[in-house]
Every structure is written in C-alpha cells, then in structure tokens.
Amino acid sequence: MAAACPSFLICSLIMLCFFMGSFGGNFYQDVDIIWGDGRAKILNNGNLITLSLDKLSGSGFQSKNEFLFGKFDMQLKLVPRNSAGTVTTFYLHSQGTSWDEIDFEFLGNVSGEPYLVHTNVYTQGKGNKEQQFYLWFDPTADFHTYFILWNPGHIVFYVDGRPIREFKNLESIDVPYPKRQAMRMYGTLWNGEDWATRGGLVKTDWTQAPFTASFRNFNADACVWSNGASSCNNSTQWIRQELDSTGQQQLKWVQKNYMVYNYCSDTKRFPEGLPTECTVTNN
C-alpha cells in the first residue's frame, strides 16, 4: 500500500500538475513594467531593470505569472549615497482586499549610515509581523542576492544564501499562514519619507534625485498558477524544504548580530500579550 500523503494541499498540487515553471534570465519574457511613466527601463537585452524615483513618481514592475509556492531570487543594487526616504522592494503579493504578501523592503539611509532591511508577512490582509536587519556589507556597491523560499510549511528570507528569517506555518495553533492565494513577484522604488528613515524623522533630499536601483538575474523555481490550479511534481524538493542544522546556526548568527527590530520582542506594541507565534517560535 502506498504511504499516505502528508498533506492534502501538497497532494493536490502534485496531482493537479500541469506545468512546472523555472523562470529567469530575461525581463522581457518574465515581467511587465506597471508604473513610472518611463522611469522603469529594461536594458542589456532584457538582463537588467533600472527603477528610478524623482519628486513626481517612483516606478515598478511585476511578474507576468502568478505563483502558488516557489523559490524566488533577485540580485539588487540599491540606491547609493544619501537615499534617505527611499524604499526599494522585492516582494510577493496577491490581489484583492484580503491579500497575502511576503516582503523584502530596503529602507534608505543618510550617507554613511547602514541600510535597513525590513521584512514582513501578510495573511488575509493582516501583517504586523515585522523584523528588521542591518546588512553586513554595502548593498549599494555591487549586486547581492535576495531570496524567498515559500512552501506550505515555511517562509524563509535569505541574503546571499544566508537565512535571516524563518516564518513557520503554525495553523495548528491558529496562526494564519499564506498558502491559498497565488502571488506575483514585484519590484518597486518609491518615496516612503513619512516612515522609512528613522521613523520618518529624516526626509528625502530631492536635490539628490533621480534615485536609481538596479535589478538583475530574477529566477523563479515555482509553481505557476493558471486556470484555478497550481503545478508541482515529485521532483519539487523545495515543497517540503526547511532549514537544516547549518541553516539554523546561520539564522541565529544573523539574528544575534544584525537584527534591530523584532515584533515578537515589542511588548509596548502588544500590551495585551505578544502574538501567539511569538511564544513558541522565532518567527
């Protein structure tokens, strides 16, 4: 007798398999520019996107495909010099008023100060699960790889192959988890001076505009959502992937040395008690 499938959702994804997508290498094929009135540019034969921001507008793009689970990575080079007030993003987002979302947001700085990496997870339109980190390198000097693993059991954020955050599926203790809505990948650059730098105390210096961020080498090893079905197959090892002992050690190193905010430690924000997941994990 065949072993029972450990998850109805995983089994459904495998049984409904019709197309497994691995995308990357050409932005002309993989994304659409969605706003910016010419401020977003696809260059180098489709190998590079630059986004710019000035006082009138920012810019952005989205993936042509929607996905339900996958591994998504992008190389970014962030806005250099005085980037205070700017927000550069690489994230996943579903449609509708009760959306799911998995965020990498890079909050600009005053020249010489470190960038802040802001992460968040939304389920059914509700977030408030922020963790923030400094980086151990200058993200404006060269391209670095930012990577999201999203499967039915775990969401893991990586920087240059090193995990910085894990968000587990804890529906067993009534913690919502994003697993029912397909999401597109987005990249944007916009003005967040009301909150991005030191809580909005440092405003955007528009004499430095236009601000520019660069994106390249987008890869999605992911299940494409189409016609009401999402695809995976038996060789999709990441569908059950979780951090091994080495990954857990790397995660602890980053969180010990570079985490600067964790909603699970913010008792002033949650005076009636921390969110349920904070009592049992390091989400």
Multimeric organization: single chain
Question: What is the C-alpha radius of gyration, as a whole number of Å?
Answer: 19 Å
Low-confidence stretches: 1-20
What is the overall number of helices?
3
N-to-C CA distance: 38 Å
Beta-strand segment tally? 17
One letter per element, helices H and strands E, the order comes to HEHEEEEEEEEEEEEEEEHE
Name the shape in a single word.
globular
Q: What portion of residues is helical?
A: under 10%
Strand content: 35-45%
Mean pLDDT: 90
* Main sheet record: 9 strands, antiparallel
Structural class: mainly beta
Describe the fold and architecture.
- The protein has 283 residues and is mainly beta.
- Helices cover 9% and strands 40% of the residues.
- It is built from three helices and 17 strands.
- Strand 3 and strand 4 form a beta hairpin.
- The longest helix has 13 residues, at 245-257.
- The two termini are 38 Å apart.
Distinctive features:
single chain, 8-stranded antiparallel sheet, mainly beta, 9% helix, 40% strand
Write the layout of secondary structure elements.
Layout: H1 8-15, E1 20-24, H2 27-30, E2 31-35, E3 40-43, E4 48-53, E5 59-63, E6 66-77, E7 86-93, E8 101-107, E9 116-122, E10 131-134, E11 144-150, E12 154-159, E13 162-168, E14 184-191, E15 211-226, E16 229-230, H3 245-257, E17 259-262
Antiparallel strand pairs: 1-15, 2-5, 3-4, 4-15, 5-14, 6-11, 6-15, 7-8, 7-14, 8-9, 9-10, 10-17, 11-12, 12-13, 15-16
Brief synopsis:
Helices cover 9% and strands 40% of the residues. The protein has helices at residues 8-15, 27-30, 245-257; strands at residues 20-24, 31-35, 40-43, 48-53, 59-63, 66-77, 86-93, 101-107, 116-122, 131-134, 144-150, 154-159, 162-168, 184-191, 211-226, 229-230, 259-262.
